[in-house]
Fold these 2 entries.
Entry 1:
Amino acid sequence: MSRHTVCTIDDLSAFLRTTVSEKRYVHSLGVAKTTADVLSHFGCRDYCRTWNGFEAPAFCGLAHDIAREMTDASLLDYCRKNGLYLSQEDIVAPVLAHGTVSAEIAMELVGRYPMSWYKALCVHTTGNAGMDDLALALFVADYIEPSRRFMTDEKRAFYLGSRDISQCAYRVLCDMISHWREVGFHDASSGSLAMKDYLERKAGSTYE
Ligand SMILES: [Fe+2]
Ligand SMILES: [Fe+2]
């Protein structure tokens, strides 16, 4: 699909369907729905809700993993060709850059969309300090959406039983960090540690 030809959420969905696997497509639909549910569950209203006919949860859910199935070499190549910043962590584990590349591809598709949505897409993988409610909800939804096989209903209820969206994201983050360590994928990234520190100090979030 050529530049700026995605005008509606149906266009974006159609693009995604031809770009990623069926499993990733179903995951993305789940993230879109769950992001909306999480925002509603915690009564979050302080975020940019609509732009140009797009709703933030649906747009971010469908767009967040557009680049998730690109190879490491393709991700690095895209970043270099488009002048995107690559941290040392991204260079070591290029999959970490898929959020930023997804955000950029989304801009190629729809034009310049809200920067808060762009940032939510960029940080959805590892998190970072200073995330707004939309970014926190996307982060949570990515982990708990219904097609995630490792997630139990009991654990979902624990997350959604948090006192606010910050504690919910904090609990997810702590479990993600533990999970990454257990499977030996990678240690907590600087973004995850910054998010953890930020939520502890600014929001007073605790796991229990
Ligand atoms: Fe992702
Ligand atoms: Fe995802």
Entry 2:
Amino acid sequence: MSSLELNKAFAAVLTAGITFMLAGQLGKVLVHGERPHESAIRIGDVAAPAGAPAAAPAGPEPIAGLLANASVENGQGIVQKQCAACHSLNEGGRNGIGPNLYGVVGAAHGHIEGFNYSAVLKGKPGPWDYASLNEWLYKPSAYAPGTRMGYAGLANTQQRADVIAYLRSISPKAPPLPPAGAAPAAAPAAAAAAPAAAPAAAEVPKIGPLMAAADPEKGGALFRRQCAVCHTANEGGKSGVGPNLYDVVGKPHGHLEGFNYSAVLKGKPGPWNYEELSAWLLAPAQYAPGTRMGFVGLKNPEDRANVIAYLRSLSANPLPLP
Ligand code: HEC
Ligand code: HEC
């Protein structure tokens, strides 16, 4: 065999391998999708009766009330299993069968320049807000009949909320979360138009009095569950999606040299004292609107005190307790 023929043979084997792998990935997605009886192959059929969108009377349950407590981590797991075969998620990531999804929440429909979207999806007015993502992920072919997204849909409401919370965490321009319990239809617009609807920051009760009794061990356990997906906390640990947090208590905002912080967080005056940390962890997006930290917040003051006590314990010279 000449070397040219060898190359050809090699290329053929490679192509076959890649095709096989892709087919396997897609197969997994289709087989393990939430609604396996509706495979993506039906897109053509679904598109046909497009004249009658009323044919889908039962829309998705609203998720506005679920978002505040949705699990970014769980959402990330679902996306890795069900979406990542077609979508990359990192900033500037390559398009696959579907477009890269970084920054999609709050961006226009068809937000990636140069991706070959279907006209029906690209033509939808307005940005991707929480309500439209909810409808889309519930049943893509009903939201945009004729879409190219060959995915049956995510019927479980909590899972949709988790997935959207995760997408929000990788979307620096995501609108504020709708207040929990808000009227679903009005919520996204109202929340975007009136950030004043969240007076929480002014009402943050002082964390100081709770610090003496706070439990760093409980805080550590909470940290591993809710923060470690993005942060390391050991001395000299690698930054992940978020900066390494060793010795952050008492240090300036944006304490880690070389980490790519948002301007809004880095620009906050003063050090991370107990009250600043508490206000931040209660509602990151309100404390620093536009922050890159995609974390919905810790409502419970004891949880906040515990996790701050844990962060405090990670320091050679901890800041004295208030
Ligand atoms: C089989 C491949 C495939 C799977 C699986 C898939 N998608 Fe998609 N996705 C696409 C394609 C193709 C498009 C473009 C659709 C169009 O143009 O009509 C798209 C578009 C999107 C958009 C709109 C992007 C934009 O720029 O407007 C979002 C959001 C999205 N997908 C989220 C998801 C999520 C979340 C999941 C998993 C729960 C998922 N997709 C699973 C292929 C897929
Ligand atoms: C989805 C990823 C993610 C999760 C989950 C997350 N963070 Fe973050 N965190 C970030 C990012 C990104 C930044 C940088 C934010 C910016 O620059 O606006 C950050 C910044 C911080 C900072 C400021 C660090 C500094 O150097 O100024 C603290 C403190 C912090 N996070 C604590 C926590 C705690 C505690 C939890 C869990 C209760 C948590 N984070 C959960 C991504 C995350």
